[in-house]
Amino acid sequence: MLRIDRHRLGPRVYVLGARVHEWHLGAALLLGLALGGLLDRVDDNFATVAAIGAGIWLVAKDWRDLFPAHRDSAAWRLGLHVRVHPLRAVRRADPLPKVAAVTAGLAGLVNLASAVTPNIAWRNHLLLYVEPFETLKLTHAAAIPASMLLLVTSPYLWGRRQGALRLAARRPHGDRRLQDHERVGIP
Asked: What pTM was estimated for this model as a whole?
């Protein structure tokens, strides 16, 4: 009934013997939302907007599989699928620094917005169940530097792969210079 195969481009999912792509799931989600909207069964709330976004994202990330000429030409990724270059190894963790950067940036923005909001009365009743009022003032004061730290860190996380590549490319030259200094006797 359900079969998942390992493939060099990513997992292959089969339901009742037929291969199912991510765009199938996205199209079914969007079609279900459209049908529910026509029958007045879908509310205008955040969950509906999130479901529409997820459906569009699933179709967009798997767009190559919509056309037979481009099918099976991209490797599975958490974000959009990317073409496989013949001389490059397929690594599943390539997008992780970018995901960490986006997560850190969003957490920093939300934390900063929450800390500088002048009127926290609407959430006081929730927060006072967790900690006393004196602690709230202290945590709000600490939230601004923490959010700035997250915002400053996120671009460095984004460029982590490129920085590691530059460091690896420079290192042999630095080691050679160090060996030359040792051979001549320069400390």
From this structure: 0.53
Q: Strand 12-15 and strand 2-5: pairing? A: antiparallel
Question: How many Å apart are CA 127 and CA 133, to the nearest integer?
Answer: 8
Question: Residue written as tokens 């989600």?
Answer: 29
Q: What is the pLDDT of residues 69-86, one digit of tens each?
A: 887 788 777 677 777 776
Domain ranges of the chain: 2-83, 96-184
Question: 102 exposed, middle or buried (CB, 10 Å; 0-12, 13-18, 19+)?
Answer: middle
Angle between helices 22-38 and 46-61 (to 10 degrees): 150
User: Longest C-alpha distance within the chain, in Å?
Assistant: 84
- Tokens 């960490």 belong to 100
* CA 65/CA 27 separation, integer angstroms: 13
Taking the mean position of all CA atoms in its chain, how far away is CA 132?
A: 35
84 DSSP assignment:
P
Please state, in angstroms and as integers, the Cα–Cα distance from residue 134 to each residue in 116, 138, 140, 141, 180, following that order.
17, 7, 10, 11, 61
